């Protein structure tokens, strides 16, 4: 079989037993790789209904079809477990050299069962698996752990996916880091921490066999050449941080816990300001010709030791959404997250929830006692030092940091039970996952995409903001087209997440980011790699199947139509300033949008998947389990 090794490695952390499982080519043609294959492995190996932090929740890793080949931005892998934030599927992507090294081990994926009695570093060395004692790495940050493992093994070719102190301490939005990149969102780091898995290291010597290397090389060079042109200029020059001023202009930049969509000091935390005052260098992932990551450093004041990669989503969350305009402090907060191994988006949104709780009197100064401030402190919006301190407290689960480490959904529910308050009304999450950096009150199609998302409040699993922001539809109203648009944009995104390919390459195939522009090129790349005869329609099926297996997982875990909802603020509290002022997504509007979406998907009115639809997609066993 070209393009794959044909086998998955299984590791039991409890018994330290390992075994291999071969998969037929038809299985690979159905699930391809990335988040789709990782979720399918999760479907096959989890005990339904288990606690996400129990040994019964497996870690499932699936490599990409293009990792280790010349295909640009193809060095990515998918990671799936049941999310400790949402209780539904937790699927993430990361990339760079770990993906290439994993491919060279001779395995297409890895499934880790059980939990270790002692902290462990699992090393997959081609066909051998070693269980290395990991106590010496405890307390180290993510980057430091990777370096320490390489030094101990005397091999700079070893690549590791690690957790930091946040994962060790059980922060529910802890993430997994490799090569400076994060498998973020949904709390994978907490799952690894519960299993006492400090790091998974890989080292391999196998090559990748492709069906038509000459064609694959030519296709790859054409895309690389295009990626050096205008289609990626935005990402090469300023990175995604350029979105700060764009969203502010549209009145969509989350400000002070999403109370408004315009930040009066946006220029001080913009991509342009970052470039001029804080830039260190730009770096790229493995197999990437774009180099979008803006490595930036705090240059003065209390936080001159801070340096990390900055992107829009972490910038909005820890900056404007906390009312903080001190870029040095914002960089420090993100640096705490990246080295500590926790999701910077969830961190910023959770800190902003705590700030609003304080300003509303739900939490008091005494609630914020810590070793640094034994009498407590006042975390008001704009208080940069409070933002930094709270990020450290969350990472270490110190004081109120233990509550905040649960994320906004669980934290607000606990506070409201204990104090009879309604802080859940400004807990900005969907299904337990903190919201992204686009205020959905002014993006009706995107609001639908977020509400029905299998992952929760995520901008990466739907591109439904595109038709709104580009003016293809009126972003302030709804019509019958929105269900089809939400379906198409989420399945479009799922194709990229399954191969996986970075979405920043999407315009480099033909100058167009739509299916008509990308699908013929993706079809050619897949066929040259595997020798298959995929058609244009087969590319559509990749996205539909990927989304369907995630939805099926959620249904088996108890999903109902009522779970597809937005937060209270977006339903009932319009913004008062800027171009998006005065708008909300009413509950009636959302119910209408959900009806349109379920119909477009071919599901029932309750959002369940008919058995006939699952059989049509080649998911016979899934049809028997959850089909209606």
Q: Which descriptors apply to this entry?
A:
about 625 residues; alpha+beta; Aldehyde Ferredoxin Oxidoreductase,  A, domain 1; Aldehyde Ferredoxin Oxidoreductase Protein, subunit A, domain 2; Aldehyde Ferredoxin Oxidoreductase Protein, subunit A, domain 3; 3 domains; 6-stranded mixed β-sheet; 4-stranded mixed β-sheet
How would you describe this structure to a colleague?
The protein has 25 helices and 17 strands. The chain has 628 residues and is α+β, with helices and mostly antiparallel strands. It is globular. The two termini are 35 Å apart. Helix 17 packs across helix 19 (482-498) and helix 19 packs across helix 23. It has three domains: 7-203, Aldehyde Ferredoxin Oxidoreductase,  A, domain 1 (4-Layer Sandwich), CATH 3.60.9.10; 243-433, Aldehyde Ferredoxin Oxidoreductase Protein, subunit A, domain 2, CATH 1.10.569.10; 439-566 and 586-626, Aldehyde Ferredoxin Oxidoreductase Protein, subunit A, domain 3, CATH 1.10.599.10. 60% of the residues are buried. A hairpin with a 2-residue loop joins strand 7 and strand 8. Strands 2-1-6-3-4-5 form a six-stranded mixed β-sheet. It has a four-stranded mixed β-sheet with strand order 8-7-12-9. A three-stranded antiparallel β-sheet has the order 13-14-15. 40% of the residues lie in helices and 13% in strands.
Summarize the structure in short.
With 628 residues, the chain is α+β, with helices and mostly antiparallel strands.
